[in-house]
Amino acid sequence: MCGIFGIFGHPEAANLTYLGLHALQHRGQESAGIVSTDGTQLYMHRGMGHVHDVFPERELATLLGTAAIGHVRYSTAGGSHIRNAQPLAVDYARGSVALAHNGNLTNARELRERLEARGSIFQTNSDTEVIVHMIAGSTQRNVEDRIADALQHARGAYSLVLLTEEQMIAVRDPHGFRPLCLGEVDVPGQSHPAVLVASEGTSFDLVGARFVREIRPGELVVIDGKGVRSTRPLGEPTPKLCVFEYVYFARPDSVIDGLSVYEVRKAFGRRLAEEHPVEADVVVPVPDSGVPAAKGYADRSGIPFEMGLIRSHYVGRTFIEPQQSIRHFGVRLKFNPVAPLLRGKRVVVIDDSIVRGTTVRKIITMIKNAGASEVHVRISSPPTTWPCYYGIDTPTRRELIASSHSVEEIRKYIGATSLGYLSAEGMLGEVHEDEKDGDHVRGFCHACFTGEYPVPFDDSVPPRLLRLVGV
Ligand code: AMP
């Protein structure tokens, strides 16, 4: 899980990239980086932590030039190291190139072994470096052909933005697992607008830019002094956008594949109310991810909506545990119930997903302790039963509670009065699977719910290891 951003043709390229990365911070909090160019060389700064902490003003001031790309990387257990921070930037025989990647190659190990056998030496354990080596090793004449050549060998998920001294290039794999879109912003005193690329269009709002369009699955877009050119060098597209972007991952104020993430989440909630109705007094979301679905559930069921749980937005990455053990401490740090709204009530709690089951279990205890008489849990996605190999950080199958427990067993474990999940058909209906949007037919990857993986992966590589090699 990562966020990528780029801008070409703007005198404040690095500053706008910094702001764009702020708007993508939800896609990754482990590390952040920016590479810029003034047409003669690349300038880079990367660091561990949030965008705000990585880029003090004095560092931003060193990122010269009118083009820049940036990256935020998702926090994972163990793989957290500065050498895996992105963008990656290298000098090779034909110039310099920097690359920011969102996704996960499913054949990275095989490609790496092949490259190492030919003498490549790797500096990181990230799959992104494999792409860089393949670009450097290509014999094609210009950089866009070298990128296309390199990506012929890559399988899996990649939304990329690359920067050379003269060009910015954006590419999306033929399945379009991860989102990527184009924008533009007017530059005072300049006849043509600056061009932007980002994982989510919300980042355009923050820098005063306009959303232009999605980059389509399999599309390669070159942005340079001559303008914007699009090619499709990667074969026929087979759209498989990650449906989990709508469930949890993307910001609700984003529009992806023509659909408002907020509206989709609300529609999931309405559908959930139809599939799993219940007699209750109040609908309460687990904030923030459960809010739009809870609104939809409340609208459709007629049960009043209340913010019965309050979330602290100031929970840092590290905190001091009290010496005396306080039960449910971690979850208390993040959530607290509004007891008067819950006392004596039959409560419907809405969350977007259950992964290990630990969060919702503690929340239910909290709501019961606040005096609720019944706690009905409704989840606005199907049971999460399979790990993701395409760029979302999920635990192994063993840790996914729904992969080895029935809904009734999960209900008992979490201590709910009743439990209902949105069906896969319901979910895919609300994202309009197989419907046309212009010349594009919407298609989704839903492997985490169904086990139907659109691209094979090397199953000797467990997802934990894939996480270490960098998402
Ligand atoms: P768990 O306690 O493992 O069941 O966590 C479930 C919660 O984590 C849900 O409320 C989701 O909002 C959130 N969540 C779902 N998927 C992810 C993910 N890949 N990374 C981080 N949080 C997630």
Characterize this entry briefly:
This protein is an alpha+beta fold and 471 residues long.
Describe this structure in words.
The chain is an alpha+beta fold and 471 residues long. It has 2 domains: 3-238, 4-Layer Sandwich (Glutamine Phosphoribosylpyrophosphate, subunit 1, domain 1), CATH 3.60.20.10; 263-312 and 329-426, 3-Layer(aba) Sandwich (Rossmann fold), CATH 3.40.50.2020. Helices cover 29% and strands 25% of the residues. It has a 7-stranded antiparallel beta sheet. β2 and β3 form a beta hairpin. The longest helix has 15 residues, at 261-275. Mean pLDDT is 92; it is low at 460-471. Residues 248, 286, 289, 351-360, 392-394 line the site of adenosine monophosphate.
Features:
25% strand; globular; Rossmann fold; 471 residues; alpha+beta; Glutamine Phosphoribosylpyrophosphate, subunit 1, domain 1; disordered C terminus; binds adenosine monophosphate; 6-stranded antiparallel sheet; single chain
Give me the Rg, rounded: 23 Å
- What's the structural domain tally? 2
What is the general shape? globular
The residue-averaged pLDDT reads 92
CATH superfamily of the largest domain: Aminohydrolase, N-terminal nucleophile (Ntn) domain
How much helix, percentage-wise, in residues? 25-40%
Numbering strands along the chain, what is their spatial order in the largest sheet? Answer: 3-2-4-1-10-9-11
**End-to-end separation:** 6 Å
Strands, total number: 25
The CATH class of the largest domain turns out to be: Alpha Beta
List low-confidence stretches.
460-471
Count of helices? 18
Backbone structural class: alpha+beta
The distinct ligands, each listed once, are: adenosine monophosphate
Q: Which fold name is given in CATH as the topology of the largest domain?
A: Glutamine Phosphoribosylpyrophosphate, subunit 1, domain 1
Summarize the main sheet: 7 strands, antiparallel
- What is the annotated CATH architecture of the largest domain? 4-Layer Sandwich
